[in-house]
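Hi R.,

Quick one: here's the Bifunctional sterol desaturase/short chain dehydrogenase sequence you asked about.
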Amino acid sequence: MDIAGINQINQWVGAGVIALGSILWAEIVRDLRHWLAHVWPWLMPKHTLHHRLFRRDLSVVDEQLYRESQWHHDVPEAVTMMVAGIPWVILLGWGSWLNGVAATAGIVYSASFWISGMLRGWGLALETDITHQPGPFPVPPSQWHVNRTYHWRHHFDDTNAYFCGTLTFVDRIMGTSLSLKGKRVAVTGASGTLGRALLKHLHRQGAKVIALSSQADPIQIEVNGQPQAVETLQWQVGQEGSLAELLERVDILVLNHGVNVHGARDAAAIQQSYAVNTFSSWRLMELFFQTVRSNPEVATKEVWVNTSEAEVSPAFSPLYELSKRALGDLVTLRRLDAPCVVRKLILGPFKSNLNPIGVMSGDWVAAQILAQAKRDCRNIIVTINPFTYLFLPLKELAVGTYFRLFSHSLPHPEAPASNSDSSGVPQGDSTSVPQGDGILG
Ligand SMILES: [Zn+2]
Ligand SMILES: [Zn+2]
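And here's the predicted structure, written out as tokens:
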């Protein structure tokens, strides 16, 4: 091919990138305008119409209000998106007519929302847009695009979060992809270094925290420099079923208990490692899934599992690695069909009573975990080991794809759970699992 041909291809590729970029720009403008409508008093009353429009099941409150809100909310929003595209057309069209035409893609795209908004306003098209349609939520909130489950949370979980309308990245940059405000969060391994730090930071974010511990004493966290006791529930590994009732009223379950037998390799150490690190967390995760039935539960419930960096890096403790890797793989397998969001916490070694030479502090690790959760990271990596950031996503992709290809998908439990008493979750043998100093936070 001659040089002129290559140049022509380059021009068309460039125009394609500009066209896509202009559509992306329109979406960024939509989301920023929406965020502004929640902080700027001039825009607020018009946007409030949109919020008054829907009941919790997303049915429309009133036909007249519906049409009115199109004129006050949807139509001006589309006009803003169109106007914001004009400078790009002028700027890019200055040197190249092709680029100028490509930049109009975002305006044409925005115009489709303008037209459908007006049609609805005139009462000609009464079907609501896809993010506001009523009916059961088939899947949890999406990570990259806004589905109904995602947007429902903006209306009924926290109106100061989840601002995005089509793509989620503006929320992910602003840290508004997950609101912890008012969420009931239960943390296992609560007496450990990380458990306490998580409780403290969750409390600071406005969550109502519940400590789950093998010890009876109430766990204390530092609030404004003063120690404050938090709601603490005593439980033992192997007796996961005893927490079933509590899990019904928990929004986010953080599975953070674990044991490190270090250099041991006898039968008892193998039994203990798998019982605590693998099967106890797996059982609690399954029990928690059974509490996810209604639309609000699908939208807001989450499980976070501390599978640790041992999933991809040596922890210099073979049984710790084996049992944590087994848990990590089970989470990867199970979350293919999970009824709610499941996050993994992939943490490097941090300073604790059991590991005095750790570089990261538990406090810092906990803050990083919450910062990433609010940016909707499903694999939360906090470590100083650069290889983990490289290998974990690759491993997750490869293993997840393999599991997807060679196992069968489960039907999503859209109907309410039929029999709540037969859980199908095997209970462990509570007597054979020692508790004590070895339990890590
Ligand atoms: Zn809003
Ligand atoms: Zn809405």
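DSSP finds 14 helices and 13 strands in the chain.

Cheers,
M.
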